[in-house]
Amino acid sequence: MVTSMKNKHVAEILYEIADLLDIKGDIFFKTRAYRIAAQKIETLDEDIEIIVEEKRIKTIPGIGEAIAKKIKEIVQTGKLEYLEKLKKEIPGELLNFLDIPGVGPKKISAIYKKLNITKIDELKKACKQGKLRDLEGFGELTERNILRGIKLKEKTSGRALLNLAYDNGNSYINYLEKFDHVNRISIAGSLRRMKETIGDIDILVSSDKPEKIMDYFTKYPKIQRVLLKGKTKTSVLLKDNLQVDLRVVKDESYGSALQYFTGSKEHNVKMRSISLKKGYKLNEYGLFNKKTEKYIVGKKEEDIYKKLGMKFIDPELRENRGEIQASIKNKLPTLVKLKDIKGDFHVHSNYSDGSEKIKDLVEYAKKLGYLYIAISDHSQSLKIAQGLSEEKVNKKIKEIEKINKKNPEIKILCGTECDIKADGTLDYPDKILKKFDIVGIGIHTKFKMTQKEATNRIIKGFENKYVNFLAHPTCRLIGRREPFELDMEKIFDKARETNTYMEINSFPDRLDLNDFYIKIAKEKKIGFVIGTDAHMLDHMNFMKYGISTARRGWLEKKDILNTYPYDKLEKKLEK
DNA sequence: GCCGTTTTCGGCCCGACTGTTTTCAGTCG
Questions:
Q1: Its pTM surpasses 0.90
Q2: Residue A182's pLDDT band (boundaries 50, 70, 90)?
Q3: Could you identify which of A253, A401, A492, A499 might form a hypothetical disulfide with A524, taking C-beta atoms 3.0 to 4.6 angstroms apart as the criterion?
Q4: Which fold has domain A5-156?
């Protein structure tokens, strides 16, 4: 049994309670207890409903009498009386204010209790009218900062897609590396962990001249504004509205600082408590003896994990989703790397809505060192993307034959991204499907369906013997379209039964399957393909985001079809 | 609110920066 959507639902309610209690002004440790419990449920390997049924909730560390009772109520009724009551005291709308930078629970509480404001528009108006400055702890600057924060939030909705953050982060690193006083330098934070969206970019530098680094850092030409500047920490806002935080430490602390600032927060909390149990104290400056405060290690990240009796944990795994236990038991996966990839199965040509000729795609694939590439265009009914008629499919196959003859060093496959129609039938009949070397299927129309309908629609596709993989399985577009509500367990079971692979679509606004479901699917022994969904040459470089998503889902080389040499691949595609 | 062969009560991870203060609370990561 794997985690269901129910676990997520329970976790969301517990997080909501924590936020509301924060605003209410309850003690920190109580709200933290709710967050810990929520995180436990969220990352559980087991279905919460089963645990409740078998009366085992309280065996989960961090969940005691009170929270156990609440979880039981949520599982059994889908609701929670306590939450409803809490919301009568503290309006749920106030939670939206937490996203405004510089605004936390205490400020929200004052804004609500003293001014009775619950809506963003009201808050904006009050700032403009200078009504906040009279509250204790508020000033004119606070009003201006809140207004600026709201504006930023409206513009960016908070988080940037991974590729935007990745490109910006790396050009900043290139700029900083040129400076004399930079000793060691790295990306840290969620960007180093390659999360699907990034709140802000963290950069870590070791240097003996922190002030000089900060001056140089704030002279970067792409900066819009300096947000704060200190000796160890400086933050700036880039012209495209991304925030970048720089930390400067001494070289002896570089490893511990990198560990600390890479996070995640949950991973670090666990790491620090393990340190305490072993008689150490861990912070960004190093690992110290708890009693004598003597510095032990901190120069390299690896040394810290080693000293704590752990194997080094790749940044992508540091989410407190079991990696710490696995590390202690020496059971961490050897994560797949970009260089393991031998080809791309999801590339569009100008036969459909791609902008490149097949021969140019092939040249680029050769440059990337690929052994094969599948040109997978849309199918006939997807007129909006110039889906291929049977006639055009035949023409494409002939052209690929020709190009294959000229390029013995790479194998070009004729693929398709065949549409799954609303009733679950495929957009090509078998007599056309069998002509393709590889068949991906995907949904591109009629997104509004019930969970059952959508699940059956996909499962029906798996039963076709020519189908190899499911493209962008949940069809989400990050920040723009919610994922399909699917019974993922059923989908994975059927995929396993029919030897159908799950695609990890590398396009930055898709990253679909996501890391969460990848890990679950892997436990169900599902195979994967990583595709870029490229529509132009440069998109083929999105492979790194597919890889990082796979790594976050604990995948190894052997889990991914397009890491195999061509001869093995051919065999694995047979159903 | 949770937890305990150092405790059933008194702890719970911790440091930097800002803005509002005049010694510190709030926020952030």
A1: no
A2: very high
A3: A492
A4: DNA polymerase; domain 1 (1.10.150)
- In chain A, which residues from 190 to 209 place their CB closer than 7 Å to nucleic acid strand B? 199-200, 202
Which of residues 87-116 of A have CB within 7 Å of strand B?
98, 100-108
Range(s) of chain A covered by CATH 1.10.150.110 = 5-156
Which residue type is seen at A501?
A: Y
Q: What is the pLDDT averaged over residues A222-241?
A: 89
The torsion angle over the Cα atoms of residues A201, A205, A210 and A212, rounded to 10 degrees, is: -80
CATH superfamily, domain A253-328, is: DNA polymerase, thumb domain (3.30.210.10)
Quick check: A242 and A164 in contact, CB under 8 A?
yes
Give strand letter and number of the nucleotide nearest A143 (CA to C1'): B19
Nearest nucleotide, CA A142 to C1' = B19
Establish whether the CB of A567 is closer than 7 Å to any nucleic acid atom in strand B: no
Protein CA at A273 to nucleotide C1' at B8, angstroms: 22
pLDDT at A381: 79
In CATH, the architecture of A160-249 is 2-Layer Sandwich (3.30)
Which pLDDT band holds residue A455 (cuts at 50, 70, 90)?
A: very high
CA–CA distances in Å: residue A513 to residues A313, A453, A461, A556: 23, 20, 17, 16
Indicate the pLDDT class of residue A2, thresholds 50, 70 and 90: very low
Residue A364 has pLDDT above 70, yes or no: yes
Compute CA A179 distance to the chain's CA centroid, rounded to the nearest angstrom.
Answer: 32
Question: Residue A91 CA to nucleotide B1 C1', Å?
Answer: 22
Does the CB of A64 fall within 7 Å of any strand B atom? yes
Question: Of all nucleotides in the shown strands, which has a C1' nearest the CA of A17?
Answer: B1
Q: A338-572 architecture in CATH?
A: Alpha-Beta Barrel (3.20)
